[in-house]
Amino acid sequence: MALHSSAPMRPTPVHLTSIKRPRVLLRPGPFRTSAISSALKARFVAKRTEATSVQQLQRPLVEYMSLPASQYSVLDAERIERVDENTFKCYVYRIKFFAFEVCPVLVVRVEEEPYGCCIRLLSCKLEGSPLVEAQNEKFSASMVNRISCNNYMGNLEMQQLTTDTAIEVTIEIPFAFQVMPVEVIESTGTQVLEQLLRIMLPRFLKQLVKDYQAWASGDTSRQPLGTGEL
């Protein structure tokens, strides 16, 4: 089995259509936190499922998916580092949020499950401009990515490989953005996450299939396959 790759070596920006800042004052509303903190917050949520069919080779896909994390290929050495047997550091592609470029750096843990695994986010750090990095103490994030395989419509020669991902980010809105409605900020942030998943998950599955084919043919080197490019 292999882990999704992500590290900022020749990063490729993910662009969204620019949004003009409306000249309105933000009114207090239900997005304000409790008395412990009066900071205004925005919440971004994105979910996506991708699947691909895989031709069974000499060694079955389910056996590949049952490999312990210690035998995972990192898929892409340009974007991932192994911390220990079950923990990995991932460098996500640079994404554009309004006028800022952000490169999230994730630390994830792999939990083995029947017919696959679950990748959970342990921590996330933002890299970029001083304003971007100043947000590192002002946001929280969670991510769960489940990867599994099963029979493809009863065809024993084909299997279906599926990745099911959910991401949630809550961030304190910087003062410079507080002239904007919270709904606009949340909509934009959610679009960024959704576009990132649309780009990365198909690439992830493609790399998994390629790694499975190498493993099934007898290649036990577990060498990375990616080059850091989208």
Keywords:
single chain; 230 residues; Alpha-D-Glucose-1,6-Bisphosphate, Chain A, domain 4; eight-stranded antiparallel beta sheet; 3 helices
Name of the level-1 CATH class: Alpha Beta
End-to-end gap: 21 Å
What is the overall silhouette?
A: elongated
Main structural class: alpha+beta
CATH topology: Alpha-D-Glucose-1,6-Bisphosphate, Chain A, domain 4
Q: Largest sheet at a glance?
A: 8 strands, antiparallel
What would you say the CATH architecture is?
2-Layer Sandwich
Write a short abstract of this structure.
The protein has 230 residues and is an alpha+beta fold. The protein is 19% helix and 37% strand.
Question: Can you give a write-up of this model?
Answer:
The protein has 230 residues and is α+β, with helices and mostly antiparallel strands. The protein is 19% helix and 37% strand. The chain has three helices and eight strands; from the N terminus they run E-H-E-E-E-E-E-H-E-E-H. Strands 1, 2, 3, 4, 5, 6, 7 and 8 form an eight-stranded antiparallel beta sheet that branches. The model is unreliable at 4-36 (pLDDT under 50).
Topology diagram in text:
Layout (H helix, E strand, L loop, with lengths): L40 E15 L5 H5 L14 E3 L4 E5 L3 E3 L2 E14 L2 E13 L1 H4 L5 E14 L2 E18 L9 H35 L14
